[in-house]
Amino acid sequence: MENSGDGQQQQQQDLAERAYLVQVNGYDSLATPKDLNLPRPLSISDFAPAPMHGSTLRVAYQGVPGAYSEAAACKAYPECEPVPCEQFEAAFQAVELWLADRAVLPVENSLGGSIHRNYDLLLRHRLHIVGEVQLPVHHCLLAMPGVSKADLRRVISHPQALAQCEHTLTRLGLSVAREAVDDTAGAAQFIAENNLRDTAAIASNRAAEIYGMNILANGIQDDAGNVTRFVMLAREPIIPRVDRPFKTSIVFAKEEATGSLFKVLSAFAFRDINLTKIESRPQRKKPLRIVDDNNSGKSQYFEYLFYIDFEASMADKRAQNALAELQEFTSFLRVLGSYPMDVTPLVGSPPL
Ligand SMILES: O=C(O)C(=O)Cc1ccccc1
């Protein structure tokens, strides 16, 4: 990103705050969302007692309509009612308070790797991963009708979208300020509501449709195979099965003893269980508040946390034995979920 210096940082913060205010205050003076009858994003302050709702599955996501997380929710549950939320925290709480049935959370990207903040959220809450979705992400550069690339002084989007398009933007001659906001579609909405004619958003072509914007450039991600992996969260785990490919996600802190990580990995290797992800995260300086089964939290210090995804169901004896063995070499171990793998082919998926 090209932002540097206090002035630009302040500008960026102002922008983020304005975008937030526009959302919090509703759409009183702004025609677009009201006309389109879009749902207002939930915020934490909305959480009064949960109303009853019908049988449609309600899926909470962070962002506004047109966000990639909304597309992920609809890929996982085509008949669902997506529920926009201002923050991830609000999406988690929506499920915990029965306002929604599922939350959708982006956890890793083919270019940038794991989204650690979102993994932290998984530990701070007691929701279970019940599914995953891999979504090819096709970014567009959106501006108000009549605005050309030469008019642009600024490009705004979710930090991941900005990072994923950095080289292409430069190649398009757009060496203008980049500014981060909470979600891609929120960036488009902000520009449309304020009729900003010097600012473009990186967002989906669905966001262009919803907010009445023009697509100045299509497919601007640096990596043509740009894929984001989302997980679906629920209050209760699903019953693991062995009649279809399952994945299990765990997080653990290893014992201090020499060789304990090797022993952890061998527990999987000896049982021929394939790992699809292993990642360590230094945690030394920051205590982590972990919520247990009774939803009571306590702060704990760990040197490192390790995240592993492996290709087996918790109904599979091999996985059960591997985890039983792991307990000997770990000071903390949590199964985040055991869920069906997304095996849909990525090639040929329609662009978002
Ligand atoms: O901002 C969005 O639309 C999201 O859903 C988060 C995101 C941002 C960039 C790539 C994938 C997901």
Describe the structure in your own words:
This protein has a domain at 238-340: ACT domain (Alpha-Beta Plaits, 2-Layer Sandwich). It is globular, with a radius of gyration of 21 Å. α9 (260-269) runs antiparallel to α10 (317-326). It has ten helices and 17 strands. Residues 1-34 and 48-52 have low confidence and may be disordered. 29% of the residues lie in helices and 29% in strands. The chain is α+β, with helices and mostly antiparallel strands and 352 residues long. The strands form four sheets. Strands 1, 2, 3, 4, 5 and 11 form a six-stranded mixed beta sheet that branches. The protein has helices at 5-24, 31-36, 68-76, 88-96, 116-124, 159-171, 184-193, 205-211, 260-269, 317-326; strands at 58-62, 81-85, 102-109, 113-114, 128-136, 140-143, 154-157, 177-180, 199-203, 214-218, 227-234, 246-254, 275-282, 288-291, 297-300, 304-310, 330-340. α6 links the parallel β7 and β8.
Weakly predicted, low-confidence segments: 1-34, 48-52
Q: Note the main sheet.
A: 6 strands, mixed
> What percentage of amino acids are in beta strands?
25-35%
Average pLDDT metric: 84
Q: Report the CATH C-level class of one domain.
A: Alpha Beta
SS class = alpha+beta
- Counted beta strands: 17
CATH architecture of one domain: 2-Layer Sandwich
**SSE order, as H and E?**
HHEHEHEEHEEEHEHEHEEEHEEEEHE
CATH superfamily of one domain: ACT domain
Global Rg: 21 Å
Keywords: Amino-acid biosynthesis, Aromatic amino acid biosynthesis, Chloroplast, Lyase, Phenylalanine biosynthesis, Plastid, Transit peptide
Pfam families: PDT (PF00800)
EC number: 4.2.1.91
Main location: plastid
